[in-house]
Write a structure and sequence with these properties.
Layout lengths: L15 H25 L7 E4 L10 E6 L5 E3 L2 E2 L2 H14 L4 E6 L5 H13 L6 E2 L2 E4 L3
Parallel strand pairs: 1-7, 2-5, 5-6
Antiparallel strand pairs: 2-3, 3-4
Length: 140
Amino acid sequence: MIRSDKKRDDIYINVTPMIDVMIFLIVFFLVATNFAQKEREQDVLLPETRGTGGLSKALEQNLIINVKKDGEVIVDGRKLGDKELQAFIARRHEIASALKVKVRADKRTPYGDVATVLAIVERAGVSRPYIDTKQSLLEP
């Protein structure tokens, strides 16, 4: 058998960049999950619609208003009355002119309460508020 006098260098894979990326992804998903859960903690049962799934959001340009089944309005974890809600939306609209307001109403909420909130949003200067629903995936 022929042997070579050259020493063979060991081949290795540097895993440090891969570990850095994995740590970054773990931190990113932990933070993103906390932001997403902030508005989902409310006791609101959404009606369902058929859709293809959710899209990413720009948090600073979105305002989510929760309307509970008893008509109670909650924004950012605080209960607000009609005048307080209108003032809050108007301040946010001044900061972000492209403000998107989503109204998450419990499906057991009387429509009059939802209509009142939509009217307040429009009076505050937001021309097209959205009504948020729970999306179920399309079946093939």
